[in-house]
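On clarity, I found the account of how folds are encoded harder to follow than it need be. Since the whole study asks how a given chain folds, the encoding of that fold should be made plain. For illustration, here is how one protein appears when written out as sequence plus structure tokens:

:::
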Amino acid sequence: MSDLEEDDPPHLARYREYKRRKEARKQKNAAPATHVAEHQQSHVTWIDGVANHPLTIPALKLTIWLCLLAFFAHHEFGSVFFLASIPICVWQSMEEYKRGPRELSAYSVFNPDMTRLDGTFTSEQWERELKFGAGALRRQD
């Protein structure tokens, strides 16, 4: 690169980069691909975008589930398949979300030292409300 090219305005530098890439493509297309792997790397198709989309796997799972539901419904086991798939869906949805190391669970029995979340309605609070009314709800820890 010459000194003149280093001091080019941004639009001119982009134009020169465009021209270099265009020339490189011409040279690459002029010579046939000698190796299959080189040809596959240079060729990008629409399937590459679909395979990397975040909804591809859920859509595939839903399609398979609907096909299986239709199959079992045809053989008069559709309701059995549907009811059997509910626990599987619940199990799959619980597996996707993992709590962070300092994130507390909504259920205090799973927290260290049985720590409760702020605003949790407890049996002690309910007992104080029954005995002394709603005015006795001051925090007494």
Q: What stands out?
A: The radius of gyration is 32 Å. The mean pLDDT is 78. Helices lie at 3-6, 10-30, 36-42, 46-51, 56-74, 78-96, 123-132.
